[in-house]
Amino acid sequence: MVVLKDDAGLLPLDLESLAVRPDGTPGVVALLGPAAVEPFVQGGGSGFVNPDRLELPVPALRAALPGGVRLDVHAGARSRLNPPEIDAAERCTDPVTGEPGVRLELLDADDRVLETRTDPTWRGWFANTDPRAVTLRVVADVRVDEPGTHELGVGTVGRHETVVDARVVSTSDHVVAEEVILASEHNNPAAAVVEIDVAEPRTVRLDARLQVVHPVGYDSFVRGEIVHRLPGPSAEEDLAAAVGLAAAADLVVVVVGTTEEVESEGYDRTSLALPGNQDELVRRVIAANQRTIVVVNAGAPVELPWLDDARTVLWAWLAGQEGGAALADVLAGFTEPSGRLPWTLPVRYQDVPVPSAIPQDGVVHYIEGVDVGYRGWERRIVEDGGPTPAAPFGHGLGWTTWEYEGATLTAVTTEAVELDVTVRNTGARHGHEVVQVYVEPPVPDADRPVRWLGGFATVAADGGESVVAHVSVPRRAFETWDVATHTWTLPAGDHLLRAGRSVADLRVSLAAAPAPDPLQTSGRSTGPDPSSED
């Protein structure tokens, strides 16, 4: 996990002060957010496997807090774009046979029935279809017992007609191509739903006619997920309830993030925004209680429009089946979150230095050349003055603070440049530091990045202790590819090696380059980097 910010000094939690308030009553912690209740622990699609168990944040944090501390829990926001998928065996009945499940009729171009079955396990996919099939008809009587407003519909793509409760919910004559399997909106289509007011228990007839797709190299299939949201509080009521808990708490932990609807293998994201109304939840919670820790449960960058206002932010990734226990350990102080960002976090998606990731005539043109990823950010910052990212490549704070005291060249060979970087833990707690060494070319060169990661090493030290990180920068980190000779070559001159906490926080430096032979060396020891941003 990565500590993005901790201006409030909330990490790790002060369990002693949480145990008892000044008035002698037990403390109150509010655990809010959709990912606090239902965390996103691994990627969607074929990257998903069923864990043998799942450690959830609520019981894990409750166990980590002192006895007597009250833990108030509320999702507060909606992270899912569609209502929940329906349980066909529980909610649906075949209107012809009366059996639990949905009735499936596979039809040819003349609407002749090729196959009929009742499927009690319908999950929105119908595969291995007859090559003559062009339409799958999905029919079910859906039980709606709960009084109030239900949302019922189907998520599909391509040619279709969906009728719910005698109302046409969605229709399209567009026939999708074979490439449907690779496109995001086709794998995770937004559902068209209709609101149904229920006073007494009854059933609602759902009748959907869906296009059959025959992609080359895959089984033929149909995509048609039935979704159903039960009556309940409105989105605004959920936000208000969560904010009320936050205002009354001594400490707030709000967990937001992505879901398999927007972050999965097999398709691209269409936005870097957190799905649903999660950003609004964070804004309101921060306004209600400044003692808020925001935890981001996502595997890839997302926009954090409230980042400037948040005082403590922890990036928790997709933490797997032990994710809840891991988060509790970090919050309670059992384990230091000493991770560092392996990518750049943008303020907004328009700032990302990728000219276009959309194929043009079947081709994606990588016109950024060698300035891929964080290198592209550095190029624009140096040449154009920005934009500045929300957090740079390599960033991470941990539990303590560090001073860089100097760097010394220890060895130069034909294979690598070796250096020692001395750092001091200037905080009170034991901590870990990831010492990163970046390489800059002898002279600015449009054909080479502004700087790039050459090597790194992790060290640990107690408060006040100095420790030496030994970093090896391999020869390849200095070399360039000669397109004429098809070989790696070493440009002449010393490169500047700059060590620090991230690509944007470089504190000491020295000049060096690999030797043409074991006897040739160059470089010098220096103190703090005069160009340091620290």
From TrEMBL:
Hydrolase keyword on record: yes
UniProt xrefs under InterPro entries: Cellulose_deg_GH3, Fn3-like, Glyco_hydro_3_C, Glyco_hydro_3_C_sf, Glyco_hydro_3_N_sf, Ig-like_fold
Keywords assigned: Hydrolase
Residue span(s) of domain Fibronectin type III-like: 433-503
Classification via SUPFAM superfamilies: Beta-D-glucan exohydrolase, C-terminal domain
Entries under Pfam families matching the protein: Fn3-like, Glyco_hydro_3_C
Coiled-coil residues: none
Gene3D superfamilies: Galactose-binding domain-like, Glycoside hydrolase family 3 C-terminal domain, Glycoside hydrolase, family 3, N-terminal domain, Immunoglobulins
Region entry Disordered, spans: 512-534
Bias-annotated ranges (Polar residues): 519-534
Family listed: Belongs to the glycosyl hydrolase 3 family.
Protein name per the record: Fibronectin type III-like domain-containing protein
Organism of this sequence: Luteimicrobium album
